[in-house]
UniProtKB/TrEMBL annotation:
GO molecular function terms attached to this record: ATP binding; hydrolase activity
Xref: Pfam families: CT_A_B
Residue ranges annotated for the Carboxyltransferase domain, each copy included: 23-282
This protein's record includes keyword Membrane: no
Native source species: Algibacter mikhailovii
Alphabetically ordered keywords of this record: ATP-binding, Hydrolase, Nucleotide-binding
Keyword match Cell division: no
Protein name according to UniProt: KipI antagonist
Lineage of origin: Bacteria, Pseudomonadati, Bacteroidota, Flavobacteriia, Flavobacteriales
Residue runs in coiled coils: none
SMART domains: AHS2
Length: 282
């Protein structure tokens, strides 16, 4: 078991998502940065869809009561095991009474903690992803216990190294496809979207990211239609909204872009004030 000493800003257990319930209005949820989460599991020889801990900006403090092996990927939040600084993308042996803690955010925005065998939290609608109204809690709370498997696997010293491409975390370029209503935009609007930088507003979370800059908009609302994580909506006031993993399943705003999977991963690692540029994929 793992005891949560401090929960961090917003720490949740996530897997790759909850599928097959969107007709009931249930969001997909799942990890915001799929690349980082999948790598965290693969390095431990877990299934790609094993549950991980997603930590946002500020990490928790966790007390381990079992032998196991862990791995950290994604954002660098100055992780320490007891008093020893840790590096991302490395296997780390953990013993009972060890405490994992985090400090200053150095890079990115969301960090992922995988554990050998995955986190064994409750399964709701075929997923362990935390979400309000579906799971008991929508995030970690102080005093929570997380069930994990006991593993006495020995780590051997190896000379081999693994180079992980994390350039998407730093890049301001976000790849997108045309959305269903993109063609309704004027040529001037399309050029403005593709030739200007936009900045992340302080309204950003697992449901959606809003951008600070407005786009002059005279489009009419559409009939309520399906939306997905990565759908970019344009509101009547000209606000640009990028839907993320916990987004609703339908919406009535024009859908001007659809982010690629890597585009979603990149946005997930952005924080307030950082700039992005939309890159239209053919």
């Amino acid at each position: 078991m793992i005891k949560v000493l401090k929960p961090g800003l917003f720490s949740t257990v996530q897997d790759l998502g909850r599928f097959g319930y969107q007709d009931l209005g249930v969001p997909y949820s799942g990890v915001m940065d799929m690349q980082a989460a999948k790598i965290a599991n693969v390095l431990l020889n877990n299934r790609e869809d094993s549950a991980v801990l997603e930590m946002t900006m500020t990490g928790p403090a966790l007390h381990f009561n079992a032998h196991t092996i862990i791995c950290l990927t994604g954002a660098d939040i100055s992780a320490k095991l007891n008093s020893k600084a840790l590096s991302n993308y490395e296997l780390i042996k953990v013993q009972p009474n060890d405490v994992l803690s985090f400090g200053a955010l150095k890079k990115g925005f969301r960090c992922y903690l995988s554990i050998m065998g995955g986190f064994k939290t409750e399964i709701c609608m075929q997923s362990r992803s935390m979400y309000t109204g579906v799971t008991s809690n929508n995030r970690l709370l102080k005093g929570d216990y997380l069930e994990v498997e006991e593993n006495h696997v020995m780590l051997s010293n190896k000379n081999a190294g693994l180079k992980i491409d994390t350039t998407y975390m730093d890049s301001s370029i976000v790849d997108v496809f045309r959305g269903p209503e993109f063609h309704l935009l004027s040529k001037e609007q399309q050029e403005e979207l593709l030739n200007n930088d936009f900045s992340i507003s302080n309204y950003n979370n697992r449901m959606a990211y809003q951008l600070n800059e407005l786009l002059d908009n005279n489009l009419s609302p559409i009939i309520t239609s399906p939306v997905l994580p990565g759908t970019v909506q344009l509101t009547p006031s000209g606000k640009i909204i990028i839907l993320m993993r916990d987004c609703q399943t339908t919406g009535g705003y024009p859908r001007i872009f659809q982010l690629t999977v890597q585009g979603i991963n990149s946005i997930a690692q952005k924080r307030t004030g950082q700039n992005i540029t939309f890159n239209l994929r053919k």
